[in-house]
Amino acid sequence: xxxxEAIQLQLNRITRLLESKLLPEYLTIKESSQLLKCSQSTIRxxxxxxDIPFSRLNSSIKSSVLIKRSELLKVVK
Length: 77
Fold this sequence. Notes:
single chain; 77 residues; Molybdopterin biosynthesis moea protein, domain 2; 3-stranded antiparallel beta sheet; 3 strands; elongated
């Protein structure tokens, strides 16, 4: 059983490493809502309340919002 657990730990570590290299670092509101399995309006409320830090592509208020994946995952934990 210990051998299987050691293999599973290694597989989990490799999976996390691959995901971090293959997945985009920044997400849109739509991608964030899909990741957290909630509505886009919920993500917008969390942004407005300051629960999730975000960046804009331009200084315009109507520019696209980008959310760092690591910051989004901190909210879930």
